[in-house]
Amino acid sequence: MGQKKDGSLTKTEWPTVLLIIACYVVWALALWVLPLWAGIPTAALTIALHASLQHEVIHGHPFSRVWLNDLIIWPPLVLFIPYIRYKQTHLAHHHDEVITDPFDDPESNYLDAGKWEHLPRSLQTILLMNNTVAGRLTLGPLIGTIAFATCEWRKRDAEVLRGWLIHLPAVIAVLIVVITSPMPLWAYLIAAYIGMSILKLRTFLEHQAHERASGRSVIVEKGGIFAFLFLNNNLHVVHHMHPRVAWYDLPALYRSRKDHYLRRNGGYYFASYREVICTYFWKAKDPVVHPLWRR
Hints:
The protein is mostly helical and 295 residues long. It contains 15 helices and two strands. Strands 1-2 form a two-stranded parallel ribbon.
């Protein structure tokens, strides 16, 4: 895939285009054709995949024109997160020197000690549960959505308002499709929650607190079905080092320099998501308070 000097694409990435089209087709089949018992999990999987495709588009794929990239991924299948705001906050997250910073990284799961100390004990307990796999998969989507909406409300500047205003017609369009389909709205909301839960497995361990920015991003070597749903972002340090590389090129890039990437991230490595789930299903992987943050 050719690139210009500024990193923008010079060719269309057809695997990504075809996957986006297939995602919408399967999503429509889940709503309109499949029985409910099959439609809900199928919709959940396509919603999770669509969110991963949004992430791919944010990084400049599959077309050379930004407006065309944004247009093709415009429908918010997950409903709750405005794409424009996701794009803005995620690109801010990609300043590697601030990754996991409880103030400057919009995607950090850590809190500052001062903020933690002023939280009610009940909320502290919920957040501690959220740092286990079991808690992250069940409570994580709700906690993440509330935290995101709270931050947006507190900021509510022109940039935030624009993102939500653009989101409104998009989410209305998706809801119209859902409401007119055979799938009940309640069933779609369940599918959307499950889709977000799947994504929470990825974000559960993507980053860790580390003195070096290069040591903060994980490698989960055998992603299995999750590697596809996450578009190979299980190889997360590779993505952070090469954010303009397409999802389907990441595995070969990792294999070609595996030792380099593992040295780079200080051996922050898991063999598979099965290992992650078995190790941290009931056990907290990280503290809620950032362990290295200097107050």
